[in-house]
Amino acid sequence: MQPGALAKALKSGAIWGFILLELIFFSVAGEFLSLSDKAFMDWENMLLLLKQSAPIGIIAMGMTIVMVNGNIDLSVGATFAIAAIVLLDSMTWPIFAGLGDWVIPVAWLLALMAGALLGALNGLIVWKTGVDAFIVTLGSMLGYRGIVFMFNGENPTSHLNWTLVDFAEAQFLGLHTATWFLLGVTFAIWFLMTRTVHGRNAYAIGDNREAAVNAGIRVGPHMMVNFAIIGFLAALSAVVFYSESGSVNPNDGQLYELWVITAVVLGGTKITGGAGNVIGTFGGVVAIQLLRKGLGHIGADTSTVNLVIGLILIAVLFLDKQLNVKGKEELKI
Amino acid sequence: MTHPVLRLENIVKTFPGVRALDGVSFSVLPGEVHALMGENGAGKSTLMKVLGGIYQPDSGNILMGEDKAVMSGPLDAKSKGIVFIHQELSLAEELSVAENIYLGELPRKSLGRVDWAKLSEQTNAILEKLNVGFDAKTRVGDLSIANQQMVEIARALTVNAKAVIFDEPTASLTDAEKVVLFDVISDLKNEGVGIIYISHRMEEIFKITDRITVLRDGQYQGTVNTAETDEEAVTQLMIGRKLDLTRNASHHELGDVALEVRGLSCGKLYQDVSFELRRGEVLGFYGLVGAGRTEIAETLFGLRDPSAGQILLDGEEVRIHSPADAIAKGISLVPEDRKGQGLVLEMNCRDNMTLPQVDDLKAGPFVAEGAEVAIFDQYRDQLDIRTPGWKQKAGNLSGGNQQKIVIGKWLSMHPNVLIVDEPTRGIDVGSKSEIHKLLRKLAAQGYAVIVISSEMPEVLHVSDRIIAMYSGRIMRTFTSDEVNEDNLIQAISGLGSNEAA
Which of A198, A212, A274 sits opposite B103 (nearest CB)? Predict the structure, then answer.
């Protein structure tokens, strides 16, 4: 075995080991602590878990490619809320009154376009100004959220379309609609990142931007495409979620960016870019949802969940540094 | 005479306030290795950026064969057959060899997919030609520096290269790896490719190049046939005057032992290192990059924990746990990366100089600015630092003056041992000899000085004794009487005798 091979294996499999650990822990602890007598690892419960993972999970796939690129997008939560408003509000617009249920695809299209445009705008600013993505999207996070409040003040925007609700609650081959979207997006981004030239370039840019520039890759436009993708996915996440719920509060989607980033980092993506993959991100998303659900199952309240996830995130990154062979030869600080 | 593959005519490039290139012309013949030399700031990199399409010249022409060429960008230059092997290896470490070689031009199938079969087939064909020991799928981060360089060269071979530019290619290669590189260069040469070879290393220049072009301050100084010139003449062209690089001959009285190291080891980085350093002595450490010299300095300065061995200061064993510890015990380190590790570039000169002791200069809760200025003035005069005033940002000074600020910073702490890692890296030739004189002067004043350097003339010039290292071990310790270029080279290549500790 080569030196570092064990560390490598541990790292790539670590997230799945962690998920297994969670499952065992909550199953056993649930026997003693749970208020319900339903087992934690119940099939229905697991299916529900996947469905509940979808809103964060769909965005996390976009965040993976953006972070592999060496960027970050903090505005996804606000984009999510804007897309939700576009979706629900557009269905009540008088010009679409004659469409009947055909208003649904129109509203979807409008919401998705809004998301892609907002994302592309982030990308354009990063490209043209050269300002760090962290700062640009911090600004747009505030700005986009401002637009949400400008639209309807503190009031929720609501519209329930029963055809849409039926679609959103449907199950196909046992899986919920939202789960299918999550799986579909995961596959699409996996394909994009591992099989296409665009995906390989994303790694190259995140790994060594200068090398990418010298090789003639058009880095600016490339990054803009990825920001458009994550904007589109934030909107898709909203579309899937609000088709079912039918009502959006102006605060919805807040802190989503942090949950998404946590999932991506847990899944093994380097925050400096250049490394990471979609399968790991999927594991990260499931692990977080399991933790939230499991802690709820044994009777812990929401604030405990946040504390535990915060601690685990730091512990995981510390472990990662320890397992890293290079870490040992680093200078002390 | 054959027609040049590449000709530059009267290239002018100005930046705000600087005339970086002032009418530079030179040409490369097919099958020629043409050295481009000059001090830092002479305009070599600007010229190469013009050639690579990163900068557009204000005036002047680039001719390829008989036609005028305009390079609109790196990719355009490459498609015209101009390929760069960069000094800073420009590779994505997480990607495979094949992906790096075809970066920016990965072969595609439908749906924008990468054509992996074609990619590895093309790559392996090129790697076979270079006769290297790794394959297309290897992760670049797992290769040695030399092999990474081979990947860069392989990249050059993917296009029908007319001119290949090597920028300081041997900076981090071992001698054996250099031989392989020179073989590849001579193969390219035989295929009629024109080669531009940028290097500071005279012995290489005289070994492999056919002609030498020298730049100084953005101006063309002339082109000479390598066979008809010598090092001295080329240096004189580079700096515009003669350079004093005589061997260190001053033998003054040495004091007692300030620092002793016994059997010091740090994992795989270096093993079983022992030496003594006396007051008034300059001890040179010479070796290749990766020989463990810098790591020893970092251990003495408390940045690394040794895995075995003892450090004795004035005969007493000490343990150094942190740089703060080292400073308190009188050990100072002038690091190799001046801008990254030695200075706070945005801070003014005075504050940089008093950084380690600002805590001791307090008047009540406030920093005593007067005392700071006094310290700055003292060392500005003593070290002859040329700056308009202490308010000047350190980042605005020349390399030589920056280095003096760092040295002054440590002298103001009155150290027992001063370690200087690569004292003249990135400093122009003129200021170099000033730094050398300064180091000799400090020794004469009774400081115990360690100088780590990758430049042989420098080590020979300033040191009283020289420790030659190879692959983490001390190969031999020379006194200035017994050392010469040949036995020093042998020792750092692992050929010399292993001295008993």
Answer: A212
